[in-house]
Amino acid sequence: MLLECGCIAVALILRELFYHRQGVFMGGFSVGMLKDYVDIFVFAVLGVASFLALWFVIERIIFYSKVNLKAYDDIDALNLDLTKNLTILYVIFSNAPYVGLLGTVLGIMVIFYDMGVSGGMDAKTIMVGLSLALKATALGLAVAIPTLIAYNGLLRKSDVLSEKFRIMKK
């Protein structure tokens, strides 16, 4: 479901890039498109990232609980299996804050554009717009922090299992 929503969001954004003609800005991008779809795009990307992170964390937990160290002949083959999919978790926790920050920057850009077009805004409207723009950064951090915690825990478990294998082979 989450992956489907992400695909729909990307399709809508691509449609807007090619067919939206009002308020042309930055060589084909429109502020109207940014205003309408930046949240959808950022939330879709972060939603897919959080789904993948949860999927791979559960997969690693199940693998670590069922791994048979006696079935391995050498440490390299074991380490290869123990660290599988940990790179994906690393990429997610490293990049999720940046995706959120991109959403915030684009949201603030829309606010400044609206201020310039309207000739001025009251402080309440600006503050509401800024607070809504910051929600993307908050969501990026909400995805990154638990993924970082899970990554570190799984990496530690991988090291423990690897060390158990070394002790067992002595």
From TrEMBL:
Residues 74-165 form the MotA/TolQ/ExbB proton channel domain. The chain crosses the membrane at residues 40-58, 88-112, 132-154. It is found in: Cell inner membrane; Membrane. It holds the Pfam family MotA_ExbB. Keywords: Cell membrane, Membrane, Protein transport, Transmembrane, Transmembrane helix, Transport. InterPro entries: ExbB/TolQ_transport (IPR050790), MotA_ExbB_proton_chnl (IPR002898), TonB_ExbB_2 (IPR014172). GO terms for biological process: protein transport. One of its GO terms (cellular component) is plasma membrane. It is a multi-pass membrane protein. Belongs to the exbB/tolQ family. PANTHER family: BIOPOLYMER TRANSPORT PROTEIN EXBB (PTHR30625:SF15), PROTEIN TOLQ (PTHR30625). NCBIfam families: exbB2. This is TonB-system energizer ExbB.
